[in-house]
Amino acid sequence: MLSSKDEVNLKNIAGNDVSIFLYRFELRGNGIDFVLNQAIAEDMYPDIDEKMKPLVHACCETLSRYRQFSAGNTIMDGNFLVTGEFEVMLSKGLGRHFAQDEKVRLFQDAKNIADLLAVVMDRGTQELKKGKRLHLSPIDNTPNPRKIKKELEKLGKTKHQQAKIQWLAEGVQLRPGLRQLRPDDLPPDVTASSGYDHRGLCYVFDHKIFGELGRIVLIKVGEQEMLMQADLYLGQENQEPAIGKKKKEIFEKVVTTVNACFDGL
After folding, report:
1. What is the DSSP string of 111-154?
2. Considering just the CA atoms, what is the radius of gyration of the chain in Å?
3. Do 21 and 81 touch, CB atoms closer than 8 A?
4. Would you say the pTM of this structure is higher than 0.70?
5. What's the domain of life for this entry (predicted)?
6. End-to-end distance of the chain based on CA atoms, in angstroms?
7. 204 in Cβ contact with 254 (< 8 Å)
8. Which residues 6+ apart lie within 8 Å of 21 measured at CB?
9. Which residues, listed in sequence order, are joined to residue 5 by a DSSP beta bridge?
10. Could you tell me if 196 and 155 are in contact, meaning their C-beta atoms sit under 8 angstroms apart?
11. Helix (H, G, I), strand (E, B), or coil: what is residue 104?
12. Burial bucket for residue 196 (CB in 10 Å: 0-12, 13-18, 19+)
């Protein structure tokens, strides 16, 4: 969920002096709000907003897995300090619950969000200097799940390509821990696509009728070891129990199939 507020933060959650508040991720009910600097939100450009939303979504998903360990409502924030440096901080003590690679990827996307917001500020400043400041229509903060999923798939494909290059450089087989999975191996009407997850390489499974079933994430836990983690997609709160049960049954078949291809290296 995206929201924006006027914010005058003199210190971040680590207690460091802040020059410009950028954003924070805030626990709200069972979800997480992305709270953006009000002035930046008002100057937001559509192209920057489109690039930022999937990154925010990915960060929310990761932070949601650790929400029970947060020491306060603000689970992560990002700010420019008085030194001019950008700093992203997790709630006190939260970082020790993360796997190192997952935390690095979370922080990298937090930095990517900050870089996009810096572009908004710089672009606006340049337009003002040239006297070409355009009146921008308000950005619709309502997330488009289908569009975000497509953007996450693009990020996932890029991540897969980067992993292949790294594995080749390290002399590792291209699909460590997973034998080639063919479309015919999956249950009827089930398709697989690239997903994006800070834990590792992600594959999302969808059903032609029932929609998203869940995801399988391959997590590197050693030089030659991969852990397979399966997450059932819980879906909407108003989902009929019978449909939820059917999706669970189909996804369990997917997990069994993928697990059979997984050699435990």
Report:
1. HHHHHHHHHHHHHHHHHHHTT-PPPPPPP--S--HHHHHHHHHH
2. 20
3. no
4. yes
5. Bacteria
6. 38
7. no
8. 7, 8, 9, 37, 77, 79
9. 37
10. yes
11. helix
12. buried
pLDDT at residue number 9: 46
- Rounded CA separation 191/31 (Å): 28
Distance CA 74, CA 88 (A): 12
Strands (E), the chain: 2-5, 18-28, 31-37, 74-81, 86-90, 190-197, 200-207, 211-222, 225-232
| Distance, CA of 57 to CA of 137 (rounded, Å) | 23
DSSP 8-state class, residue 174? S
The single residue listed with the structure tokens 């995206």 is 2
* Tokens 């559509």 found at: 46
Pairing of strands 31-37, 2-5: parallel
Q: What is the pLDDT along the chain (265 residues), one digit of tens a residue?
A: 454 554 454 799 999 999 999 999 999 998 999 999 999 998 899 999 999 999 999 999 999 999 999 999 999 999 999 999 999 999 999 999 999 999 999 999 999 999 999 999 999 888 888 877 665 666 666 778 889 999 999 999 998 888 777 766 666 555 555 566 788 889 999 999 999 999 999 999 999 999 999 999 989 887 777 889 999 998 766 778 888 899 999 999 999 998 887 654 4
- Letter string b/e over residues 207-233, b meaning 16 or more CB atoms within 10 A of that residue's CB: beebebbbbbbbbbeeeeebbbebbeb
Return the structure tokens found at 175.
């699909």
Q: What is the DSSP letter of 84?
A: S
Question: Residue 91, exposed/middle/buried by CB under 10 A (0-12, 13-18, 19+)?
Answer: buried
Helix (H, G, I), strand (E, B) or coil at 14: coil
